[in-house]
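Suppose you are handed only two things: the residues of a chain and a line of SMILES describing adenosine-5'-diphosphate. What would the bound structure be? This form records exactly that question and the answer produced for it, so the two can be stored side by side and reused later without any lookup.

QUESTION INPUTS
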Amino acid sequence: MSEVLLELHGVRASYGNIEALHGIDVTVKQGEIVCLIGANGAGKTSTLMTVCGFVKTRAGTITFDGRDITNMPSDRIVRLGLAQSPEGRKIFPRLTVLENLEMGAFIRNDRAQIQKDIDHVFSLFPILGERRSQAGGTLSGGEQQMLAVGRAMMSRPKLLLLDEPSLGLAPLIVLKIFEVIKTLNAEGTTILLVEQNARMALKHSHRGYVLETGTITMADDAATLLADPRVQAAYLGDGH
Ligand SMILES: Nc1ncnc2c1ncn2[C@@H]1O[C@H](COP(=O)(O)OP(=O)(O)O)[C@@H](O)[C@H]1O
Ligand SMILES: [Mg+2]
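ANSWER OUTPUT
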């Protein structure tokens, strides 16, 4: 339980001359659900994009599963066991549900196991099984989010990065998504979750980090953060 799976140390990242991450430290241990909460524009997506190698690390180091992955090409990072469900889902709208899931398994060629994993996604999200031959673009927002999570699972990641899985979804669908996050974690997948819905995220996580304009300002057990007056005032008030 205490083995470190992902470690960001002093990570800086920028877009042109504008620095989005000012040297952040984040640790995710094997078996944990860790959430990163913060307002719009705080740098949550940038953090995940930097871990995945889509945004360049300008300073600091990122290690994953004992390897230095700082500025490693994204496809190599996926092969090491890291997958992301990106903000806005980014499913392939013209491919069917089944084809979207197969795309998630692009690094694999173990056909029988891939089929088993597709069946597993359909057992977690039965609606996706019912819609397996439908184009991804015809799904509802909630179904597309399920598909994005399912697609990320298809590479059999050790660490799953989820960027705003609850954004724009009806409360019942949000509950369903978080239920599956718990199940995946219980099955052995470590999860780093980014959310503006701080309450839901903290309720379902072991630990959390608060990110404010590119700086980590708080890091603690999720229950401690939930009870913290500063967190409550800034992130858990009405409208959150
Ligand atoms: N592609 C981009 N080009 C330029 N600036 C960006 C880009 N993406 C994000 N930013 C800036 O980086 C900062 C952090 O954004 P982001 O990581 O998307 O925050 P969050 O996910 O917490 O809402 C913001 O100031 C945002 O405007
Ligand atoms: Mg974002």
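WHAT STANDS OUT: The chain has a mean pLDDT of 94. The radius of gyration is 17 Å.
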